[in-house]
Amino acid sequence: MSKPILFTHCTDQEFHFLEAPNFTKLESSTYNGQKYKFSKDGKFVAIYDPLNLVIVNTQNKKRHSTLKMYHTPYVIEFSPKNNYLITFELYSSKHKKENMGNLAIWDTKSGKELIRIQSYQKEIWPQAIFSQDETLIAILNQSSVAFYNLKCLNIGPVKKKNQKGIRNFDFVQADNELLLYIFSKGGKTVGSTAEIFVYPEFSTPVFSQTLMNSDKMSIYWSFNKRCALLSSSSDIDMTGNRYYGSTNLYWLNRQNNGKFKFQNVGITETIHSFKWNPVKNEFCVIYGSMPAKKILYDDLCEPYFEFGGGSRNDQSWSSDGKFLAFTGFGNLNGGVEIWSMEHYKQIKFLDESFGSQYGWSEDSKFFYIAVVREKLKVDNGYKIFTTFGKLVKHEQFDVLVDAQFCPAIKGTFEPVEINEEVIKTANRTYRQEKKKKELNQNNEQNSNLFIPSFKKGRTTQQSSSIGKKERHPMFIKKKKKVKVEQEKKEKGRGRGRGRGRGRGRGIGKGRGRGRGRGRGRGRGRGRGKGKENKNEKEIQKENQTNNQKNRQNLNNMSFEEMPNKEFLSYFGNYKQDEIIKMQKENDKKDPQKVIRNLKKKIKEINALKKKKSNKQKLNNAQKTKIKQEPIYKYEIHRLKK
Amino acid sequence: MSRRKSKTFKTPRRPYQKERLDHELKVVGKYGLRTKREVWRVHYTLAKIRKSARNLLTLEENDPRRIFEGAALLRRLTNLGILDEQKQRLEYVLTLTIDDFLDRRLQTQVYKSGLARSIHHARVLIKQRHISVGSQLVNVPSFMVKIESQKHIGFSSKSPFGGGRPGRLKRKLNVMRGNKNEVEEED
């Protein structure tokens, strides 16, 4: 059953639904509001209009109910089965006057307020968590965690767990048990403890650990709830290495006893982000100074795969677990790498420089990047891409408050298919890409090829034009004109022979060197100090006629079809003599015998190439043999004619 | 009954050199050491390793002794975590410094894994028998932690931080408070 995929965005006053795959606005589905929150199923949305919370059904796009609020909520949350709603408001003088509480629990169908509780803390969220059955709710106090029964809230707490100084807590269902996690900070001498209890038995913890150096410790469960990651952070770093304090990562694993095993993941550098795979028990960590390392850890907390690529900040998994996107926004250059987790290869690189929100659709067919008003006051808007990099929609606003894909239950969508071509063309090396460019004169970019921005670089065709603006001669001042002409006269333009495959311009006998050195590999461009200073016009004519025409022709031919002279011009003078000798000798002999001998040599060279691909070391003599391969191939072709 | 003895440290040649004294004092403060001897001890071990590496580098590449002993030296250093996994050549052994060795002591590892508030607190915890590597209680702050056992550093199961019974003073106080409460209730 495939449901329609929804994308929502919220400007200063309005809230819109958009539907895949075209993402056009639906007419009857705009609401007024600034804040909104999805339920965990994705069936309902709660939109906040001043003093009215509207709950909307996402399939019909019609109103389900409205709730009347007294103050603006800071946080809105649904229960797992969408029957109840929590709102948390910041404690202000209004609350004092009317003796009202902060935390409120509502019933979504009727719109009634069930209970109000007072709580002062704003920095710690979550303060109230539902159980999955919707029978219990756990609420934080200053010195205890209180459990209420949702059907009879006014009676009071059913159970309580007392502990002073609770900073973090979590309440989760694992298989058949309910687990409670508490982190409380003690004094200097005692240290701070993290504990996990099974629901009704609060006397014996299933896991407990004391740490001296942590102020906060939050827990991140895997999909099974059998493994968890604890990230402890301290406000002050006593060594003075980091200004913002130090962080540590710990790993928990539930054993057959029921108890948890504790282990330090072992990362000493700054941790940028870490996240669980939503399908497996593995997680990926980005840590270190830029370019940061991205490493995948196992079931058993051992690293087993390292991602290459550039410097990125953050990661986001698709809900399949099949795609991973690394993003480098914030204080970095930008850019998004998309990896496929079946093949462990990079599929696509998106060259985007701005973004503050990003994520996958539940389909895992679309990936969106949005720039949001909180972070940037300029360039607000969103872009939606497919997983293979095509821009589907792009829209900009003056003010964009939020943009999101509508969540959904896992397993309701069909998986995305990847072509084999995409995987073959993935991870091409720089040289292969350059060769393709030289062959395709038009330099078209295929959508399957990925060329990261730092590797796009400059081809030698472009290298001379970068940095130089083409100006109309009207705008060039006279002085410069004169200077330019004078320079041209002085330097002259010689024709030299560039090294490599360069065709330099310059007269004069350089042995492939002198001033006429080709730039890089590829088209060399020599600027020789010619001995004879010709006029500009004569030089230009010559160059136009010979070089450019030949170049255009040569680009289309393979080297086997070239006439002898052109083929020889790829080599230096010294080698040319050798080749000419060899060719003369071969003309005298039997062509067939010669061809047989040459084919033997080519077989040896192929064997050497296999060794090279197996990363075995070769002698210098073996390396020169490989270089001589094209000579033999050309001869065979020539003799066959 | 008879134990083999050998010297483990070597005093410096010149006693009063401002640079050297400052540098050693910094090291002592950074790693929470007790005496200068602990610094000279590490200097001595480094010197011995460098000597053997230098000797091996003078031999030819194919020499069986170089291959065998070089590989053994590199293996020992990587197991202790001093040498990187990607720097498996004898030339890199000659670029090691003292900080690489001092980072692998139990005292610094306890501090860096978050079990202690400061380096000095770490030394106290170790000496007061709170810390175990795996299941083995370790009392020695200069225990060189291997890479495999780095993840198993934690409070031992018998210490009050790790789930054992509370310490002597706490037990005494509990008894006193217990007596007080009983006295009050009676009244």
Automatic annotation (TrEMBL), chain A:
Biased composition (Basic residues): 469-482, 491-528
InterPro entries: TIF2A, TIF_beta_prop-like, WD40/YVTN_repeat-like_dom_sf
Residue stretches of biased makeup (Low complexity): 542-554
Keywords: Initiation factor, Protein biosynthesis, Repeat, Translation regulation, WD repeat
Compositionally biased intervals (Basic and acidic residues): 529-541
Keyword Repeat: yes
Highest taxon, organism lineage: Eukaryota
Domain Translation initiation factor beta propellor-like: 210-402
Sample GO molecular function, one term: translation initiation factor activity
Region of interest (Disordered), ranges: 432-554, 608-630
Record's keyword annotation contains Protein biosynthesis: yes
Similarity field: Belongs to the WD repeat EIF2A family.
PANTHER family: EUKARYOTIC TRANSLATION INITIATION FACTOR 2A
Protein name listed in UniProt: Eukaryotic translation initiation factor 2A
Automatic annotation (TrEMBL), chain B:
Gene3D superfamilies reported for this sequence: RNA-binding S4 domain
Coiled-coil ranges (or none): none
One GO CC annotation: cytosolic small ribosomal subunit
Domain RNA-binding S4: 104-168
Domain Small ribosomal subunit protein uS4 N-terminal: 3-103
Signal peptide extent: none
GO terms, molecular function: rRNA binding; structural constituent of ribosome
SUPFAM superfamilies recorded: Alpha-L RNA-binding motif
Alphabetical GO biological process terms: ribosomal small subunit biogenesis; translation
PROSITE patterns xrefs: RIBOSOMAL_S4 (PS00632), S4 (PS50889)
Keywords tagged on the record: Ribonucleoprotein, Ribosomal protein, RNA-binding, rRNA-binding
Family of this protein: Belongs to the universal ribosomal protein uS4 family.
NCBIfam families linked: PRK04051.1 (NF003139), uS4_arch (TIGR01018)
Name of the protein in its database record: 40S ribosomal protein S9-2-LIKE
Annotated organism of origin: Anaeramoeba flamelloides
